[in-house]
Amino acid sequence: MKHNFKKFICLLFLLFLINCKKHNPHNFTLITSGYGGTYPGLIADPAKGRAYDIVAARWGIDFYWRGCVISNDTQWEDIKNNWEAEDNIEDKFGDDWKKKFNKEVLIEYQKEKHYEKK
Question: Is 14 exposed, middle or buried (0-12, 13-18, 19+ CB in 10 A)?
Answer without folding.
Answer: exposed
